[in-house]
Design a protein that fits this description.
Length: 233
């Protein structure tokens, strides 16, 4: 399911390119399990994740005066929501390599909005949505709360560089218990269009990734990032 609201946006172009930057162990786990890991929302580094802006919080507090459980629900709800984050960009991002990989290792999965939609398998036990993150001023701007997914599709303006597309799942109405996150079923071949190896990695590292992917039976195009290619002068 995909959120349709004037407050939530998602490009209609299925060819929009998105990226996920990750280390080799997380990538290997994805291939072996044929599942996509989604992090619990309250485990993210940003402490504001899934919370409200100041104008919205003031309104919620007024409602909670006569209904204290209303506020308690939003506090505990973060533990029941899991997220997979993707970076929307036509090209590789030097900043994303720096933030999400280390020691000149790691890789980037290239996909598209259309591929993600096709790769996600229908879930019977919980709701699942995809949406584009809105970046706002949390001191001045309002976050709607007529849908419980909305707080997870807004972030502070200081995170605009992330250009984030999110897959969001809510397990509140299921018996699923989550610690750090949840793995959901995906079609790996449909999800991944191409794999880029870290631009500063050694050749042996690229060969290792190619060998692993082939031995696991995947026919995915793999190439080394050219962000660090030789200059022409």
């Amino acid at each position: 399911m995909f959120l349709n609201s004037p407050d939530i946006k998602l490009t209609d172009n299925p060819e929009t390119i998105v990226w996920k930057y990750l280390d080799l162990s997380k990538f290997l786990d994805m291939l072996l399990s044929k599942k996509l890991f989604m992090s619990r929302s309250d485990k993210f580094e940003d402490q504001y994740e899934g919370t409200f802006s100041e104008p919205t919080f003031e309104e919620i507090k007024k409602i909670a005066v006569n209904n204290p459980k209303f506020l308690d629900y939003y506090k505990s709800h973060r533990e029941k929501v899991v997220i997979s984050s993707w970076h929307a960009n036509e090209y590789e991002s030097f900043a994303m390599w720096q933030i999400f990989t280390k020691n000149n290792e790691g890789l980037a999965i290239q996909s598209t909005i259309g591929r993600i939609k096709e790769a996600l398998k229908s879930e019977k036990h919980f709701e699942q949505y995809i949406g584009e993150v809105n970046y706002i001023d949390y001191k001045k701007e309002y976050i709607p709360f007529d849908d419980t997914f909305f707080p997870f599709l807004f972030k502070r303006k200081s995170f605009q560089y992330e250009r984030e597309i999110r897959i969001i799942s809510d397990v509140s109405n299921s018996k699923i218990s989550i610690n750090d996150g949840l793995k959901i079923d995906v079609d790996i071949n449909q999800l991944i269009e191409k794999i880029y190896i870290h631009p500063k990695s050694e050749n042996w590292y690229k060969n290792l990734v190619i060998e692993m992917v082939q031995k696991l039976g995947y026919a995915i195009t793999i190439e080394k990032s050219d962000l660090e290619s030789d200059i022409l002068i």
